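Researcher: Here's a chain I'd like modeled. Treat it as a single chain, no partners, no ligands.
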Amino acid sequence: MKPSRRLNAALGVALLHDRCLAIMSGRFNILSINVAGLPEFLNNNDIPGDKETNAASIGSKFAEHNLDVIHVQEDFNYHAHIYRTDTHPFRTATSGGVPFGSGLNTLSNFPWAHFQRVKWDKCSDASGFDCLTPKGFTFMRVAISTSTDNSTAAYVDFYNLHTDAGGEDRDLAARQNNINQVVEFISQSSKGNAVVVYGDTNSRYSRAADTGIRSMLASENATGPGMTDPWIELQRGGVVPTEENVCANPASDNACEVVDKVFYRSSPLVTLQAKTFRYDSARFLQPDGSVLSDHNPVFVEFTWAAGPSLRQSEFSGGAFGTWFSDVPALAAIKYPKPATLVFRGGSRLDGVALTLTDGTSLSHGGTGGTEVSLELGPTEYWVEAELCRGQKSGKTRNFYIQAVTSSGRTLAAGTRTTDCAFYLAQDGWQIVGYVGQDGDEIDMLAFLYAPQ
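Model: Modeled as a single isolated chain. Structure tokens:
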């Protein structure tokens, strides 16, 4: 019998608590589905039955099949009926029906540390009414695994998108701009992170003018975001199609092409591998066999494993400021080790920094507060940390940090609160850097670990 995802996660946590160096690993699945939630008078989507009933059926099937991370598009005026019958513990709040909302929502078995909605910079009404609603994409940093003591976690950045539709020149230009906007956002906010992007791209590889989705692929764009499409990987042997083979609805096989796409990449922190790809139409039908949406749902199952030489803790603080990550710098160093720790703090935690033994300097936050530093000996490692958070102007901030070395020496900055968490490196590992969000202060912070 194959262990469940939750058993895999539990085993991973047990290994961590035993303080052994076994790699955390597991499985999770995703689903992308355009739920045809435009008001009936605007678009009936040629779907039998009434939209309220169909939306409720979609929600119940989400719950029945216990899918891990579901992205929905066109989730407009029938949103409440989907959520009424679904049972996922973590769900985004709707941004509204037409014309106020983007129609993008996520239902998940995993919590997230950050969620953000982004509107497209460019839209086109050349072939329809794409500018009627604030279409765009969402970004969330999802915790696919956590430990009970906060010390170790695995995060993947999930993007949900719905690009401009149509085939006129202005539509194509808008859609290309949409994809470019996502790529730029990934380059800024997902540095060093594993990423899964999926949703309704309104694009097909077999349409020569749809160049945007090709630019996502590592095989097609060496300077792009470095993504893989599981459909191309698992169904087409890595070959990008040039001839049209459009799916029926429901799809009769997995070889045909739809506009709903999935892209993914690994990172030094989390390795992802797509294992299963299918159009999940058979599990999303009405009792009489009719479809529930005018789009085939897309299902992918992934395996994942924590990095062998870099890992991270859970986050502390609030989701504000600009994302930063020391992962790219640390991944380029074979044996990173801090030589000097530097903190800045006063009433709150203003800045964190360290210098590695090879001279690499890593610094985040502002210049306020009082600076304190600690030089580590040649065989002395940073092995424990404490972070305390509190409220400032109605927002959660990090107020205090303390480092403890393998020699028992400490360094602290900021003001301790009653809401504190401790972070402990596994035996044989050390804290070597940071990931989080900053501005004038340290808004959100997690620690990066490497072997000693």
